[in-house]
Structures are given as C-alpha cells and as structure tokens.
Amino acid sequence: xxxxxxxxxxxxAEARSSLKHQQAGGRRVSVRSIGRRSAELKRLHLAxxxxxVAFAVMAxxxxxxxxxxxxxxxxxxxxxxxxxxxxxxVGLLATFPRLKVPEIGALNRGDxxxxxxxxxxxxxxxxxxxxAPAVNLIDQIGVxxxxxxxxxxxxxxxxxxxSEVRKLVGEHLPGMVESYRRIPxxxxxxxxxxxxxxxxxxxxxxxxxxxxxxxxxxxxxxDLDALAVRGxxxxxxxxxxxxxxALQLAPPKAEA
Length: 256
Known about the structure:
Elements: H1 2-23, H2 36-70, H3 75-95, H4 112-126, H5 132-153, H6 160-182, H7 197-221, H8 224-238, H9 243-249
Helix pairs in contact: 1-2, 1-3, 2-3, 2-4, 4-5, 4-6, 5-7, 6-7, 6-8, 7-8
C-alpha cells in the first residue's frame, strides 16, 4: 500500500502537469486567451477536470484499501493493478473531455457574460486560419469585448439597444470571420474592386473594433437612445459580413 501511495503521488504530479498543459489551451483552443472571459471558461473547465481526477484517484485508492483489508493485503499484483488504474484514470480524465469550440449559432445565447466568453473562445479558435493583420485585430477585439461585457452587465437586457449590440458581438463579428473562412484559400488574395479578401477582412475587423469602442463609450455614458439608433445602423452595415465578398470570390458553379 505504501508503494501504491507513492505511485499515486507521482500520478497526481503528472496530472497537474497535464492540466497545466490543458490550461495553456490544449489541442482544440488557442494557447493564449484573447480576453478574460474566455480565460475564465478555460479555468472553469480545468477546475472540473481536476475535481474529476481527484475523485477518481481517491476512489481507486479507497477500493485498493478496502480490498487489502478484506483479503489481508493485495500483494504486488494488487499494487500494480492499482498503479495502472491510477495511470489510466488520470491520463484519461486529464485529457478528456476537451474544451470544445462553441458552435457559431450558439454564441449569442445566454447572459452577456456567457456570450462574451463564447465569442472570445470561438474567435481564438479561428486565429490560425486568419491573416496576420486580422489576428492582431482579433487580439485587440478580445480586450474590447471584456470592457463591453462589463458595460452590458449594468444595462437592462430588455433594452432594444442591448439586443442590437449583442447582434454585433455574437452574430455580425463572428459572421464576418466565418464568411472569410468560406472563401477558398487560393482565392483569398485575388483582387476584386481593388481589394482582396484578406484586406476586406482586416478592414472589416478594424471597423468593428472601432464600433465596439464607440458602443462601450456610449454605454458608459448611459446614452441608450443614441445606442439603439447606432445598433440598427450596425445591423444594416455588418449584417452580411463578408457574404457578398464570399459570393464574388467563390468559383462559379458548373452548369448542369
């Protein structure tokens, strides 16, 4: 049993190391968080993993202890079985379930904190597929979303202005990125009307960043009427994202 306890200590150390790796982003989400809300989601996910690992380790050790008391010792074979069970349980629970990237259609659901967190997490996952200037803007927008989220938490969710701002963050912003990703990679640098898809995305994200900053300032000033008007304008301006660009750059369908 002493060997088992010693082995479990090593396993717990390995589990902590694995969990730190997962905290750094794992395989399905970005290594670096672009905002506090997405980082909060990751910490919550890791805390749940750590709790499951600790529970599994205690359950296995308790089972080994009970077995030892019942049969007057579990022997070397029992110690090895216990050790392997610890390895398997910790390895499995420290790896799975991974933190999944939210579906784009689910970003604008729930309260403001959840919306901002999911949007940041979704944007992080898109970073590898975006051009470098757009990645820099995504990082900047992540910081802005934290500030905007704080302002929205202090406003009545029933306000029409809040609904419009949520559309900008939870629908139009990710919609613009998703429209860019739908454009075939070999066509993204093809110039149409003096700009290619990379430039259109970067320009669009830059404008959305400016709008988020302006909206945050208006929320801080409590000017909800002006914000409602601005929200309707944003809905018209960004509602289609890069859809038109995607349609223009997509290869024509072959006629039947």
